[in-house]
Amino acid sequence: MKRYVIIGNGVAATGCIEGIRSVDSDGKITVVSEEDHAVYCRPLISYYLEGKTDLERMNYRPADFYEKNGCTVLYGRKATKIDNEAKLVMLDDGSRLPFDSVCVATGSSTFVPPFNGLDTVEKKFSFMTLDDTLALEGAIDKDSRVLIIGAGLIGLKCAEGIHGRVKSITVCDLADRILSSILDTDCAAIVQKCLEENGIKFRLSDTAVGFDHNTAFMKSGREISFDVLVLAVGVRANISLAKDIGAEVGRGIVVSERMETTVSGIFAAGDCTEGEDISCKKRRVLAILPNAFMQGRCAGVNMTGGDAKFDKAIPMNSIGFFGLHAMTAGSYYTADEGGECYEEKSDGKLKRLYTKDGYLVGFMLIGETERAGIYTSLIRERVPLDTLNFELLKKIPTSAAFLTENRRKIFGGVV
């Protein structure tokens, strides 16, 4: 009986379990879970604060998922080392797990810069996990003035989540626009306007450099008083376990299309990994839920000795704030880089489709995202634009623009 160890208990681990069980119904699966919770849908933590969901509905799989898949889950345990020669995973309680195959699915962690005086702030929180969310919920009330450091996706979803439950929310960021890693200036402005209309205040091109209890000292010289501080500056992939055994790492753990690291027999999946972004042919960390699951499933199949590959990774984001929806995917090439951009713009809505060398390589949609998955499929499947009616697709994302054979390939036979 083969022994599998999965380090991590998020969406990538779930995919890994299901990938293993699709081939091997008998092998022993042990999951090392640093959190004390069963796998849950992390993007829903802000909706929990808003009261739009509850703890039960946040579960990514049914309560009997692990039992049905014959898994042993070690909750509250952390892997400290992989001994690849002895085929053992060392845990923080001194125990050892023997393995025949292992998958590192350790995700990412909040990055906190060394702010002066941060230790003087009593109520400070991250916003990455369910435990972070529950702790933050216990600290806020209707009189709380909340300062969020970071205007990326994590910081802004936190702002939306606590909106209506606190007195005020101020978000600061050294970048000159919100969601700077996802949206360009025009798109960011539309989203920022929506947030501001709902009472969120911004201090952009400025950030905290130090603290003294409930006062933040800003780079600009301003001072901001607050009651609760949320640190959402950024995240870093948890790469140390793989790095320590000699696996190649960059910003993430480098993996092949089989989700295998550069150390033979050691696999990795999810937000801790770095693989090829097919929209730009560059190696990147693509920390998004759909990729994590597909990577995990691919790793699981190959851990059994199977032959699967995941070669359709692209960056994607589907976000919404106060009813305004936005979707992005792929890469955005300028004319100088040989790309072209088709644009439609109206009040509160923006569509940009980026093409290069006869392919759709990226898009940004603000305000109207219905059926955007068709655009995503074009990028993932590398469909040549001369094989479809792209002029129609520019206006309306519809399967009618595809030739019959392409419809079957992309949409699973739906015509």
Model description:
The longest helix is centred in the last third of the chain and has 15 residues, at 289-303. The relative contact order is 0.12. The mean pLDDT is 93. The chain has helices at 11-21, 45-50, 65-68, 130-139, 153-162, 185-197, 240-243, 289-303, 373-380, 390-395, 404-411, and strands at 3-7, 28-33, 71-75, 79-83, 88-91, 96-98, 101-104, 108-110, 124-125, 145-149, 168-173, 200-204, 208-212, 215-218, 223-225, 228-231, 235-237, 253-254, 266-268, 273-277, 282-284, 316-321, 324-330, 339-346, 349-356, 359-366. It is built from eleven helices and 26 strands. It is α/β, with parallel strands linked by helices and 415 residues long. α1 runs parallel beside α8. It is globular and about 60 Å long. Helix content is 23%, strand content 29%. The strands form seven sheets. The chain has a five-stranded parallel sheet. A five-stranded parallel sheet has the order 9-16-10-11-12. Strands 22-23-26-25-24 form a five-stranded antiparallel sheet.
